[in-house]
Write a structure and sequence with these properties.
- The protein is built from 39 helices and eight strands.
- The chain is mostly helical and about 725 residues long.
- It folds into four domains: about 190 residues, P-loop containing nucleotide triphosphate hydrolases (Rossmann fold, 3-Layer(aba) Sandwich); about 50 residues, no CATH class; about 220 residues, Tetratricopeptide repeat domain (Serine Threonine Protein Phosphatase 5, Tetratricopeptide repeat, Alpha Horseshoe), CATH 1.25.40.10; about 60 residues, Orthogonal Bundle (Arc Repressor Mutant, subunit A).
- The strands form two sheets. Strands 2-3-4-1-5 form a five-stranded parallel sheet.
- The relative contact order is 0.05.
């Protein structure tokens, strides 16, 4: 029981247990007694709905002398990270001592290089063979899940068996395994009832029809048709199941019961709380109990009921024809209920099915924040891919979700597009009261992070302060908010920047949920300390960042990588020789150009750091290029000044001509060029020419930089 509780915390136990089987189900001896089912490594049960695939899989697995790991798949398993976690939980549920494999950040290349090998290692470490059953495998449509399935099957101990049950097998590498003689495959024709099986089934349903010959002929051995016809008032050809269910199952019901069944059957799986939420009926428990004996519904575990897929399909078709608006309301209500239960994937699926923009925005935004913190970036992108671009562009919560998902994925073109659209959708005065909007704090945080849509570091600092004030201190977002506040304090040269960055690093460490935030905080702190002259503390901070980056395998995080590589350039300048500095510059340039469009301050800061590095390796041409990147004040300007001082040390004033030296002395004052010209009895153009020459020799690009240089020289 204790182990089950641990598993349930990550993967619902309902996914790890076979679905409930009606007591009237007959045992398919002619199929499961086949020796090939007992000896082939891979077994498939592939047929449309109503052929008893899950039931047959249960009967087959129950005969296994090996531990049985059962997995009922859902749409969340299309994310390969989730599928690995689901399979790990299933094996842990079935095999004592198996340690589940979990991974918070699973985007490429981490998934391929780390998660899959770790999973394969854990599976291959099993002491004895196991039986694994994939139910509803047709739900999987991602090629990445094929790799997970193949990894599992290849890693299982010799003597293990794997079964796949579903309407299709598109993600199962059957051609490969079939060619190796490893499979036994059953399809719809194999799963049809024989005449004797139909007779046994009819008798089990209590119909007074010895032999059930007429039902067998009308159903053509289709198991679900046998069930339906056994309960019908008369036997007739069952060519359209939906029409049959509408006429024979729903129509005879009292109006109140029929409405309840149609509302709940549209959802497929319900419990009393969910049924009450979508129907508003105080008698949901009684209706569900009564429905078991009259409709295609079976009780499950822990108070859940599951309608047969054909019953659900029939009801959905009826709703779409008669009242699509009511159906959308039911699905939206279900989405909200599931969100409240923390069942994110199901909530999003119902929200998407509803097509209701506000519901979609609310559910996807709330679910997306949690999923991204769990490292399920591909899941969130998959949700967004199922929603039309027009709908995303019309709902600020959806476009904001797209912003953060694409930030993590490194698709910066989409980041900027969705960020601009989000700002467009917000009212003009949203920055005055950001807490009044669900995404207000997040939009402010993004703008403060990127400086996109702001007038400069000062406004970005105000937005960072606003974002932090709007976030609860216990929110997992707080470390990031604090980091962005510290960043903008550094960019505006606020004295509290050091303390704020240290606080951000401490918060990220305490939450254990934000390794990238911790790395970036350490990097920015290191860059700040180095430019302030605290070389020992600055280098130590960047060293710590490098360690945490490696431990948490953050190579897939583009912005984090870019910030770290820039900090490593600064570190090489203070510790390494020309070769190390050159290598650090080359590494930084592979990423820097990619993130500069999304982090508008990054290019300016990198200009100062790279200018300093270029002087250290005596690449004065590169220095002149990089120093022109520096815009604004604060940390960026401080690194530019540091570079200029270094350059000036290698280009002393003795390089200036006597005439230039006279102009230089007056440039340090606040005299205009006309006043300098008058004082030296020169023309303004001559003074201008001398000034340009001075700038080139001293490595500055403006009079202000020249004055700063003079001030630093004392």
């Amino acid at each position: 029981m204790e182990r089950e509780q641990v598993v349930a915390s990550t993967t619902p136990l309902s996914k790890l247990r076979p679905p409930h089987v009606r007591h009237t189900e007959i045992t398919r001896h002619r199929l499961i007694d086949d020796e090939r089912l007992a000896t082939r490594e891979v077994v498939t049960f592939c047929a449309p709905a109503g052929y008893g695939k899950s039931t047959l899989a249960i009967q087959w697995a129950s005969r296994s002398a090996r531990p049985v790991a059962w997995v009922t798949l859902d749409e969340s398993d299309n994310d390969p990270v989730v599928l690995v976690n689901t399979l790990s939980a299933a094996l842990a549920h079935a095999v004592t001592g198996f340690v589940p494999v979990t991974q918070v950040a699973g985007d490429e290349p981490t998934f391929t290089h780390d998660v899959l090998p770790s999973f394969a290692c854990a599976v291959s470490g099993l002491d004895s063979p196991v039986t694994v059953v994939f139910d509803d495998v047709h739900i999987l449509d991602s090629s990445a899940t094929t790799r997970v399935i193949k990894t599992l099957v290849d890693a299982l101990p010799i003597g293990s068996q794997v079964a796949f049950a579903g309407r299709s097998m598109s993600v199962v590498p059957l051609p490969l395994w079939r060619g190796q003689g490893r499979t036994w495959e059953l399809y719809a024709d194999d799963l049809r009832f024989s005449a004797s099986e139909t007779a046994a089934a009819v008798a089990g349903f209590g119909r007074k029809d010895p032999g059930g010959q007429d039902i067998h002929e009308a159903s053509a051995g289709w198991p679900v048709a046998v069930f339906l016809l056994s309960q019908a008032s008369s036997v007739r050809s069952l060519t359209n199941v939906e029409e049959f269910i509408e006429a024979e199952v729903l129509a005879p019901m009292a109006a109140e019961v029929r409405d309840f069944v149609m509302c709940t059957a549209a959802l497929g799986t319900v419990n009393v709380d969910l049924a009450t939420a979508v129907t508003g009926s105080p008698t949901a428990a009684r209706f569900l109990s009564e429905a078991i004996t009259t409709v295609l519904i079976a009780p499950g575990e822990h108070g859940w009921y599951r309608y047969h897929p054909l019953m659900q399909d029939a009801v959905l078709d009826l709703w779409r024809r008669t009242d699509p608006y009511r159906l959308a309301q039911l699905q939206a209500a279900a989405a909200t209920w599931y969100l409240g239960q923390g069942l994110l994937d199901t909530a999003v699926s119902y929200a998407i099915s509803s097509g209701d923009g506000p519901t979609l925005g609310h559910v996807v935004w709330a679910a997306g924040q949690v999923a991204l913190l769990q490292g399920r970036t591909q899941t969130v992108l998959g949700w967004l891919n199922r929603i039309s671009s027009a709908t995303i562009d019309a709902e600020p919560e959806l476009s904001m979700t797209a912003v953060w998902a694409n930030v993590v994925a490194g698709d910066y073109g989409n980041v900027l597009r969705h960020a601009e659209q989000t700002q467009f959708l917000m009212p003009g005065d949203w920055m005055e009261h950001p807490a009044d909007f669900s995404i207000g704090a997040h939009l402010a945080l993004f703008m403060a992070t990127s400086h996109a849509g702001v007038t400069g570091p000062v406004q970005a600092l105000k937005l960072a302060e606003v974002a932090r004030d709007c976030v609860d201190p216990t929110d997992p977002l707080m470390p990031l908010c604090t980091l962005i506040l510290g960043l903008n304090q550094a960019l505006t040269w606020q004295p509290q920047a050091r303390q704020t960055l240290q606080e951000s690093e401490a918060l990220a460490l305490a939450t254990a949920a934000a390794p990238s935030t911790r790395v970036e905080a350490l990097c920015m702190l290191g860059l700040l300390l180095l430019v302030q002259g605290d070389e020992q503390a600055g280098c130590a901070s960047i060293d710590d960042a490098r360690t945490q980056f490696t431990i948490n395998d953050l190579g897939q995080m583009g912005t984090t990588t870019g910030v770290l590589l820039l900090a490593e350039v600064a570190l090489a300048c203070h510790r390494g020789g020309p070769a190390e500095i050159r290598q650090a510059i080359d590494r930084q340039q592979t990423v820097g150009a990619q993130i500069a469009p999304i982090l508008q301050w990054y290019r300016s800061l990198s200009g100062g750091v790279l200018a300093f590095a270029s002087v250290r390796i005596r690449d004065h041409d590169a220095y002149h290029d990089y120093v022109t990147w520096c815009q604004g004040d604060g940390l960026c300007r401080q690194w530019a000044v540091k570079a200029q001082l270094q350059f000036a040390a290698e280009t002393p004033l003795t390089q200036l001509t006597p005439a230039e030296l006279r102009v230089w002395e007056l440039l340090k004052s606040r005299m205009t060029l006309n006043e300098i010209a008058g004082s030296l009895y020169l023309s303004r153009e001559t003074v201008k020419s001398h000034t340009g020459s001075i700038y080139r020799k001293l490595g500055v690009s403006s009079r202000r930089e020249a004055q700063d240089l003079a001030d630093n020289w004392g």
